[in-house]
Amino acid sequence: MNVQTLVKRSLLGLIGAAAITASIGAPAFAANDVTQVINGGGNISASVASATLSPVTYSDAQQSSSGTLNLSVSDPRGTAAGWYVTLASTAFVYGGSSPIGQNLPNTGFVLGTPGSPVYVSGQSIQPTGPVAVAGGSLDQARKTISAAVGTGSGSYTQALPASLVIPTFSQTGSYLATLTVTISNAP
To answer: Nearest-CA neighbor of 155 among 105, 103, 119?
Structure first.
């Protein structure tokens, strides 16, 4: 065997041994990533349970009636984008037998100082939300509760004290108003 063949065989043997050693001793490279996706749980929502104001007796003087509106708010989006809720009311439509029965104006349907929001589930209540907003007449959309960006990812309730001015000589019967509850993204 000539020297040249011996050198070639030795060189090939050395390269082969290095390749085997590298494949045994070298770590395998693979992706070590784990991905977790969290999907939003739905849409924001707000509602007021049906409510009844305290009954009154017919009178020849103006009087008022009171009650509590129980507001529920839910934000399952998982974005902490914030939100606010407004309420507005129609007039109280007369439903009785008097030929002179009149609707009760919604200007007299007023929210008092609302109770503090109550945590149900999700993100705890923070200083910036959800927070109660001052009351007022429901003849126009009135903000009642809000959550700033970074808060309000959960479910909450709020008690809203309400009163209705009943004008003099309002006829006997029932009066029905419709509330419009709107939840919107914060600014």
So the answer is: 119
- Dihedrals phi, psi of 141, to nearest 5 degrees: -60, 125
Round to the nearest angstrom and report the end-to-end CA distance of the chain.
89
The residues spanned by each domain of the chain are 45-185
**CATH node for 45-185:** 2.60.40
- Name the pLDDT band for 27 (thresholds 50, 70, 90): low
What pLDDT shows up at residue 7? Answer: 43
Residue type, 80: A
The pTM for the full model equals 0.79
Give the residue among 135, 117, 134 at the shortest CA–CA distance from 126.
117
CA-nearest of 91, 85, 128 to 106 is: 91
Q: What's the count of helices (H) and strands (E) in the chain, helices before strands? A: 1, 12
Q: What stretches of the chain adopt beta strand conformation (E)?
A: 45-48, 63-74, 83-89, 93-95, 109-111, 118-122, 131-132, 136-137, 142-147, 154-166, 174-176, 179-185
Residue listed under structure tokens 């029932």:
174
CA distances from 107 to 89, 111, 178 (A): 9, 11, 14
Q: Residues, the chain, total?
A: 187
